[in-house]
Specification:
about 120 residues; alpha+beta; globular
Length: about 120
């Protein structure tokens, strides 16, 4: 398994205020993905001039997690589960979510920190 990117992901009830804050800090909107999962979530990927990324998503609660993109989702999930992680308990996050361009699971450590583990689907044909 290879990690292809690693950055903070903020899930908030008020994503526009978080996005404005990061814009004021010099981040720009780079990518918007809409209609994710059962709740049709929108995720905004932002990047600053130094190459740092932050993602902001709308959610029912307030969480900060680490987004970890990998080249093999199943391998990453098995690796984490062997080390005590489990899939998030709520129904929408317990199953692998397929957005059409990526697949992801929310994984929670025994101590409670959260990783959003994602694999981009590439059409190499």
């Amino acid at each position: 398994m290879k990690i292809t990117s690693f950055n903070p992901l903020i899930v908030t009830k008020d994503p526009e205020s978080a996005i404005r804050l990061f814009e004021e800090l010099g981040f720009e909107r780079r990518h918007v993905k809409e209609g994710i999962g059962k709740d049709s979530v929108t995720d905004v990927r932002m990047k600053d001039a130094n190459g740092f990324h932050v993602d902001v998503s709308k959610g029912d609660g307030e969480w900060t997690m680490i987004r970890m993109n990998v080249d093999n989702l199943e391998e990453a999930l098995a690796f984490l589960e062997e080390r005590g992680f489990h899939k998030a308990r709520h129904a929408a996050a317990h199953e692998t979510v397929d957005t059409g361009s990526s697949r992801f699971n929310i994984m929670v450590s025994a101590s409670g920190y959260i990783l959003a583990v994602s694999q981009h689907i590439r059409d190499d044909d």
